[in-house]
Write a structure and sequence with these properties.
Layout (H helix, E strand, L loop, with lengths): L5 E3 H8 L3 H10 L4 E3 L2 E3 H11 L9 H11 L9 H13 L3 H8 L4 E6 L5 H7 L18 E6 L3 H7 L3 E2 L5 E6 L3 H8 L2 H8 L5 H18 L1
Parallel strand pairs: 5-7
Antiparallel strand pairs: 1-3, 2-3, 4-6, 4-7
Helix pairs in contact: 1-2, 4-5, 10-11
InterPro entries: HTH_17
Protein name: Helix-turn-helix domain-containing protein
Pfam families: HTH_17
Length: 222
């Protein structure tokens, strides 16, 4: 990597506006990607910034975030209690900024990136739940890239069986969630998830499409 592609822990902390201790904690949890001792992949920092938006808004718990996805998609979130569901509906009606929605829902999954052998890609495509980008009019995805959701309980097995190697610039993006994966498969097929994923892309065009769709979803929900 060139010097433009990585940051020191101190530079990472300054970029994120956090302490170096907090930056190390983010690297330890996989929220940002460590490429060597004391060095962080800059692209992972950019992705984290896009998802967090540096706001003061607190993220919802994982099951609540998926509940918000279901509600915006017009589906039932029957895993939530009556009171919790009512409060969530009210919170969604009060949201006016897409950035706040991105912050609220960011903990629905943890983003991990990998390098994989070409022979493993077909099998990986059968395993992951890939968001429906066609619902956004985005149909030009590169075939060698994979971006999808996997169950947290399956990650180690998938990584071992398909010889995935952690790589911050790898073509395989796995969004790891501990939520009920049968529910995830249903929700990942909605335009809401496609838009949430797109809205945190480092590609300005894709990000713009995601923002537009989410803004329309919030307006329709109100």
């Amino acid at each position: 990597m060139t010097s433009r592609e990585f940051l020191t822990i101190e530079e990472t902390a300054n970029t994120l506006g956090v302490s170096t201790r907090h930056a190390r904690r983010l690297a330890d949890t996989g929220a940002i990607s460590r490429i060597a001792r004391g060095l962080i992949d800059q692209r992972s920092v950019d992705r984290y910034l896009q998802s967090q938006r540096m706001g003061r808004t607190r993220a919802w718990a994982e099951h609540t975030a998926w509940g918000a996805v279901a509600m915006l998609a017009g589906l039932d979130a029957d895993w939530l209690g009556t009171t919790q569901a009512s409060r969530l509906r009210q919170s969604l009606r009060e949201l006016t900024e897409v950035d706040d929605l991105l912050t609220r829902t960011r903990d629905r999954a943890q983003v991990r990136t990998f390098e994989a052998h070409r022979a493993a890609l077909p099998c990986l495509r059968e395993i992951v739940a890939v968001s429906n980008t066609r619902a956004l009019g985005l149909t030009d995805a590169v075939n060698s890239n994979i971006d999808g959701y996997v169950a947290a309980s399956d990650l180690d097995t998938i990584s071992r069986d398909l010889s995935l190697r952690a790589d911050p610039s790898g073509p395989v993006t796995l969004r790891v969630t501990g939520f009920d994966f049968e529910q995830v498969r249903v929700l990942v097929d909605t335009s809401v998830i496609a838009a949430l994923d797109a809205a945190t892309s480092t590609d300005p065009r894709v990000r713009g499409v995601g923002h537009r769709v989410l803004a329309e979803s919030l307006k329709a929900f109100r």
